[in-house]
Every structure is written in structure tokens, then in C-alpha cells.
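#structure-requests
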Amino acid sequence: MIGYIEGKLSVKTPALIVVDVGGVGYEMHISLTTYNQIGKTGEKAKIFTHLYVREDKLEFYGFAAEDEKGFFKTLISISGIGPSVAIRILSAIKIDRFKAAIIDEDVGILTTIPGIGKKTAQRIIVELKDKIGVLTDREKSYLAGKDPEESSVINDSISALVSLGYSRAIAQRAVDRVLAETKEEVKIEELIRKSLKFV
């Protein structure tokens, strides 16, 4: 089994990359999370890999971080959740937010993910709740709720994007990306403006 591949990033798209290792191009499916974390085309990249074996073909899935790869493997262990759905989940929601939703049995958050209906969300909760284990401090913050003022700014920003016609999952992902790249406190107007670049 290949644990990771390190080489030059020769192709980079939001759904697929090719890593050149000694003249051999390894094609891998990726999530938007990995897409945002890896470098530019032509740069060196280390990609953690998972080989998915099907009857008719083999597929490589790549991840910028080992914890994302581990959670991908957890997701595809769920009945009815294949690799394409798992990648969609990893693209639409942060792992810590997802774990907190599982612990809190929050079906509503899970159904904001494209392709995840109420029944699938309930099955995911049942199958994963005992596997999640102990939450990190960051995950607990999502479960307990953030600072009320910060939560209000985030929620209002997401609502504003939704009112502009974007889905809640896309709006959430855009806001999360801005917050991940912003170290200072951000006002609602600035958060909305910056989030519009990522929807």
C-alpha cells in the first residue's frame, strides 16, 4: 500500500491532481479542502494517498493532510457512503465541525451537504457516533458554540450569502475559508465581501 506520494504537482483542478514522480504521473481525486491546502502547479507536493479498489478499476484519492485521509477511510466504511460522497463531504464541511455535528446528532448541519438527505444523515450519525471518540478543544468549541458575537457575525454572513442565491453549504464553506485565512477579527461587511470570492 502506498502511504503518500511526493513529487511535482503537474496538474491541479478542484477535483483532480496529477503528481509527477520520476516521470510517472499519479492521478488522484481530491477534495476542495486539499485543493486549497496544496501548492501551485509546478511546485513540490506531498500527498497522502488511498487506493480504492473496485471490480472494474483502481482509483487513487489524495489528501493534503493525514487526518483528512483517515477521516475519508472512516466515511467510506459507512454503508452506502462511497468515495465520491466522502470527498463531497470533505469538500463541504470542516472535519471538526462534522464531528461536532455527529456528537450533537445535528441532522440539519449534515443535510446542508450536497447529496446528503435526512435518512443518510441519520445513518451517518448512528454509524459514526461511537467511532468519533474524544473531541479536541477546537471540536468542542463547535459543539458548545462560539463566542455569541462571533457566531452572530458568522451566521449573518452566511444568511446574507444565502439571500444572494448561494446554497447554505457553499456559503458556509466560503465563510470558513475566509475565517481560516484571517487572523484578526473581521466585521460582517468585510466577511461577506471576502466570502464572495470563494462562492
